[in-house]
Amino acid sequence: MRAFNVKGYGMARRVEAIKGAQGIRKAAEAVEAEVTAAAKNGKITGRAGNILLKEVGKRVELTLNPPDSWIDRLAISGNKFAFFGTLALSAAGALNNAASIPMVILPFLAGRTDTATAASAMAMGTKFFTGSGLSHKVTPYGSTAIVEGEKDVLNSYMPSVDNYYAADAKGQLQIRDDIVDEPNYYQMPIAGGKTKSMSKIEFLGMMRDLVQESSDRSLLNRSLFADQIGLELAADPKASGASNFLDKVQKWGALPFHTVERFNRQATLVGAFLNEMARLNTKPNKAKNEDKLTDAERQRKAMATALHDTAQLNGGAGLNTAPRFAQSGIQRAGMMFKTYGFTMYYNQIQMARAALKQAEENGLDAESIRMARKQFVASQGAALALSGVQGMTIVGNCTRYV
Q1: Of 107, 163, 171, which is closest to residue 139 (Cα–Cα)?
Q2: What is the pTM for the complete model shown?
Q3: Alpha-carbon torsion 14, 217, 244, 331, what sign?
Q4: What are phi and psi of 189, to 5 degrees?
Q5: By the 8 A CB rule, do 226 and 254 touch?
Q6: Which residue among 16, 87, 245, 389 has its CA within the 20 to 30 Å range from the CA of 56?
Q7: Is the four-CA dihedral 167, 173, 175, 179 of positive or negative sign?
Q8: What is the number of other CB atoms lying within 10 angstroms of the CB of residue 347?
């Protein structure tokens, strides 16, 4: 029986790896075609196209063939040792990670709308995550029956927004039959300072496509942190009893950090979506014809914005989205807790650049410049209020070299 389980596990992983590789290569080919077309019509000039394609190619290679040299294995072991010797099972350290919501995410979203709207959207995102429960329903391959999904340490003992849905055999999400409807579950801001009351089922229907796309991109169950210390989401039946025991100990130790990263990402996905929907409903940008969008078009635009903003504000959910110099070798160990900081530097520089560039030079209209300026000032203001001048990332970074 053990031999059957081991072989079945190996075959299943290989099949999924082949399917995943096909999807990744197809996406890379689509990027190459788009970049080539942009270069021909002048939207991309100089070496930018080649640099972009080279970067995509290297990240595809990393995803399909993760580095496994002795240096990389040493870096993974070093990360595990450093983490479990300092922060394993640390509630305080994990809660500190959650500070990114008031410090970074809320000011950014407030720049798109206002503080009250952004706070309401993030509060709903938090409610949606914490109220999702622990029961995860799926349809096994070759079956039509919906059953409880298998447990894994890192994800099965904490909420997740996809728990409101059941996945069929093809991975498509549908609202679960056992969800109890609630009236006045969410008040959607609309034009004229009014709100539209939505029941829980109506709200879940609106959120389904966002949750589906997030699930397809592995944004719901993975964390960059777990990738950096080399934790597998599923146990390997080929491993010895002692190895599996150590693996479980490591996972339980990483659970607080992993869960907070997932909470930040999922709450941001929902909050950013609702915040953008509120903006499109109440203050659409007429220069971009947003006032002429249909309901379906507004939802698609809000979903694209939410996915983009979540990646900018929380970083990627896997090692393949981290800065390339942090993906392998000794840099992987050195950058374990610094990747998020580099993402924030990039994010702040982009906001400052968008705010200071002239509309003619950057292709931005006055409304986009206003939003970028508000986002930059609000994020720096939040850091100044909570940690003083030295706590502001840009000031702190500059003073090191003075």
Answers
A1: 171
A2: 0.72
A3: positive
A4: -65, 135
A5: yes
A6: 16
A7: positive
A8: 21
